[in-house]
Amino acid sequence: MVERLSPTLKAVSDAVLAVAAGLSVDEVLQRLVDSARELVGARYAALGLPDGEGGFRRFLTSGMSERLVASLGPLPRQHGILGAMLDVRSPYRTQDIHEHPRFRGWWPAAHPDMHSFLGVPILEPPAVIGAFYLTEKLDATDFSDEDEELIGLLAAHAAIAIANARLHEQTRELSIVAERNRLALDLHDAVSQKLFGLVLSAEAAATLLERDPEAARGQVTKLQTLAQEALEELRSLVFELRPPELERDGLPGALRKHVELLRRLGQHELELVVDGEVPVDGTRDREVLRIAQEALQNALKHARASRVTVRLGAEEGRLLLEVEDNGVGFDPDAQEARGRSLGLTSMEERARRLGGTLAIVSTSGAGTTVRLELHDG
Ligand SMILES: Nc1ncnc2c1ncn2[C@@H]1O[C@H](COP(=O)(O)OP(=O)(O)O)[C@@H](O)[C@H]1O
Ligand SMILES: [Mg+2]
After folding, report:
1. What is the helix (H) or strand (E) element at residue 177, kind and residue range?
2. Tens digit of pLDDT for each residue in 339-377?
3. Which residues line ligand 1 (CB under 6 A)?
4. Ligand 1 centroid from CA 298, angstroms
5. Which domains does the chain have, with CATH numbers?
6. pLDDT tens per residue across span 26-49
């Protein structure tokens, strides 16, 4: 036992490290099943996680070529001995699977014949969350007590690794959800307000129609304006939701597309100036684009500006983004600018995450400049 303890420890620590390295659930499981097979010297190994509906959510194999796996067809159901391991809480070992009461007497086409078998459930008390299946012991006719013990140890750690890997994946999914929620809030703020106004105007127009046709006409004109504005905001927000094609267009290209879209939508004079070669950096470009989009949206939505200029400049490890409007200006530190909306705050947070600085310089009546500065390294 002692001389085999170290490969066990290695197998277990490999699995734990795989989780720490942020590998996907499938990658972690694959390491576990490979380790199990090597640990006891089996020709074949499998690891199955049930889906709770009589099938397997995941079923990974080791020792079978991809061609063989493909020729076996769809994932196995939990029939026969596979299912038996999910019903009991203790390991099962036999010299010949054919003699197991739940063996149906035949294999699916292309399935290799198997004799010696060791099955070990993976427990996350009180549930059985999976099982290790090992078959065809290589240098003996049967798996040993020691093999059973080793796989039992691996199964105890597999339970933790599986739970952790699941958590990792959920965390990743959550941060995507957070981003979507922010956009949903913007969408709600911008558009539902307009639509609400639209409904009110329509109601007013309907009431006034007979009594005061002139006033009704006024309400209908207002209705048209509101509907047009709602349409524009909705379009630009939907554009934001669509993933920008940064890999293809680069930051200057993606920014140009966005500016062109906004230009087509409104009556604003909008200019984009790009200076120098902007090196490609996927993560950074995505964040910088989001900052530019928010600053632009604010300038168009709040500033009542006649002119908005976007500047993107790169020189010697420095990246500069500026969005300048000649509108009404505001106090960026005032409470009312920091209400429940997160536009300003999220620009600042993105800048901080990138290790850069964001300055909002605004003078009442003389416009606003949002300035992002980033340095390499
Ligand atoms: N360029 C700008 N010109 C004038 N006011 C602005 C400008 N940018 C932001 N503001 C003011 O700051 C407030 C907060 O902006 P932000 O956090 O982006 O929220 P939102 O755009 O959803 O209102 C805005 O409601 C607006 O009053
Ligand atoms: Mg905003």
Report:
1. helix 145-187
2. 666 789 889 989 998 999 999 999 999 999 999 999 976
3. 189, 298-299, 301-303, 325, 327-328, 330, 337, 341, 343-344, 368
4. 5
5. 2-171 (3.30.450.40), 246-377 (3.30.565.10)
6. 888 898 899 899 989 999 999 999
